[in-house]
Amino acid sequence: MRVGLGYDSHRFDPARPLILGGVPISGHPGLSGHSDGDAVCHAVTDAILGAAGAGDIGSHFPPSDDQWKDADSVELLRTAVDILERENYQVVNIDVVVICETPKIGPVAAAMREVLGEALRIGPGFVSIKGKTNERMGWTGSGQGLAVHAVALVDRVPQSGDPGAD
């Protein structure tokens, strides 16, 4: 088993829709970014790639490449899962903390767990989403944006011929 840590942060951008964990959140400014700005998916993608020793989100989906402009971050996450599977890894579980004053994460956490669980091919029961404030301190506390931390546990999938696999 291997553990990976992911992090992402973005400024709020009122000209964009807010999408977190693949879930649109109405009535709130979106996030700046080259893709759709989904910081939850970005942090989770970094965590699973890191756990498998497969680089980071920027090495697979560089912001300098126009093909990723406004890309759906859930699709990027699915592609990262494909990368893991090619390396004979599978995601076991993830734990995510979203740090922001607004929006409130609790009301959308279950929907995010569903979307992420499906994209990660593990189901929502193996996905944890928590929202925390920064007690109005710093840039997240002043409402300039949000930050996300994600931890992923991955495990090698036994292949026929591996010791103990038969």
Strand order of the largest sheet: 4-1-7-5-6
Overall morphology:
globular
Protein structure class: alpha+beta
State the low-pLDDT regions, or none.
Answer: none
Write a concise keyword list for the protein shown above.
166 residues; alpha+beta; single chain; globular; 30% strand
Account of the 3D structure:
The protein has 166 residues and is of the alpha+beta class. The protein is 30% helix and 30% strand. It contains 5 helices and 7 strands, in the order ββββαααβαβαβ. It has helices at residues 39-51, 57-60, 73-86, 106-120, 138-141, and strands spanning 2-13, 18-20, 23-25, 30-31, 89-99, 127-132, 145-156. The protein has a 5-stranded mixed beta sheet with strand order 4-1-7-5-6. The longest helix has 15 residues, at 106-120. It is globular and about 55 Å long.
Summary of the model, kept short:
By secondary structure, the protein is α+β, with helices and mostly antiparallel strands. It has helices at residues 39-51, 57-60, 73-86, 106-120, 138-141, and strands at 2-13, 18-20, 23-25, 30-31, 89-99, 127-132, 145-156. The strands form two sheets. The chain has a five-stranded mixed beta sheet. A two-stranded antiparallel sheet has the order 2-3.
Give the topology:
Elements: E1 2-13, E2 18-20, E3 23-25, E4 30-31, H1 39-51, H2 57-60, H3 73-86, E5 89-99, H4 106-120, E6 127-132, H5 138-141, E7 145-156
Parallel strand pairs: 5-6
Antiparallel strand pairs: 1-4, 1-7, 2-3, 5-7
Helix pairs in contact: 1-3, 3-4
